[in-house]
Specification:
By secondary structure, this protein is α/β, with parallel strands linked by helices. It has a single domain, classed as 3-Layer(aba) Sandwich (Rossmann fold). The chain contains 8 helices and 12 strands. The protein has helices at 60-68, 93-98, 100-113, 125-136, 158-163, 178-190, 209-212, 216-224; strands spanning 22-27, 33-39, 44-49, 71-76, 117-123, 140-146, 151-152, 155-156, 169-174, 195-200, 250-252, 255-257.
């Protein structure tokens, strides 16, 4: 199992007290200082990762719901975004890939706070980053990808889905978002552990799916609580897309190819 590999993460600098609410600062392995917002307390940690050109405030309502359900939650401003803009401004091509360090720092903060497991929920770019971070970080036990793509700003998922191994993976995409729906279908086919794919009729993408699909928030809470049982996700006859070749996992233009 590839996922048992661990990574060294620089010690996280905490600027919040043990009330576990409000703004904290994180220090990444490559020396960046990031802003994040924590909610609630509990043994189950959830890390929330936003899309490009967004910030941690996207997750406010969902974070409140998670904390009310006993989760310890941390919503991170990725470098170059929100309160972390000074960490990389302007963003260069290399910065997108380095954002996996931002996720590692958030996961380390949750573990230091007492979380015995860490799940990561990512939106679009955040989804791709979440899978890449988890592929090298054994402390991340569960990933939820909202509107992933095969390649976002150079952050690809082909090698990451294999390295992720047999940990749980949930994927959500709008049926009308052909790129994300195709990527989600391919990723689900290649996932080795407990998995769920929801292709929804919501007309949204990323964190906005939480606003347009009423059933999604409680479904995610259940998944993050370990509800991986049979019958989760779409029934196979309801699928509107072919699975395709599970090896065809990256894309350049309209051609899918494995990295």
């Amino acid at each position: 199992m590839n996922w048992v590999r661990n990574v060294g993460v620089m010690a996280v600098v905490l600027f919040a007290n043990t009330a576990f609410a409000g703004t904290v600062r994180l220090s990444t392995a490559d020396g960046k200082s990031l802003s994040a917002v924590s909610y609630g307390a509990g043994e189950k940690g959830v890390l929330l990762i936003h899309d490009a050109k967004r910030d941690a405030t996207d997750w406010k309502n969902f974070a409140d719901r998670l904390s009310a359900n006993g989760f310890s939650v941390l919503a991170v401003d990725l470098r170059g975004h929100g309160g972390s803009k000074a960490a990389a401004a302007p963003l260069g091509d290399a910065d997108w890939l380095l954002m996996v360090d931002d996720i590692d720092a958030g996961a380390a903060w949750l573990s230091a706070k007492g979380a015995t497991s860490v799940s990561v929920v990512g939106a679009a770019l955040g989804a791709n980053l979440a899978l890449n971070a988890a592929s090298d970080n054994a402390s991340i036990t569960n990933v939820v990808m909202l509107s992933p793509s095969l390649n976002i700003n150079g952050v690809k998922v082909g090698a990451a889905i294999t390295a992720y191994g047999d940990r749980p993976l949930m994927l959500v995409a709008d049926k009308g978002d052909a790129i994300s729906a195709k990527a989600s279908t391919l990723l689900e086919a290649k996932a080795a552990g407990p998995k769920r794919l929801d292709l929804v009729d919501g007309g949204g993408s990323g964190h906005r799916l939480l606003n347009t699909v009423a059933s999604l928030e409680p479904t995610l809470v259940g998944w993050l609580n370990g509800a991986y049982g049979e019958g989760m996700g779409l029934a196979r006859p309801d699928r509107t897309l072919e699975t395709g070749d599970a090896q065809d996992i990256e894309t350049t233009g309209t051609k899918y190819e494995d990295r």
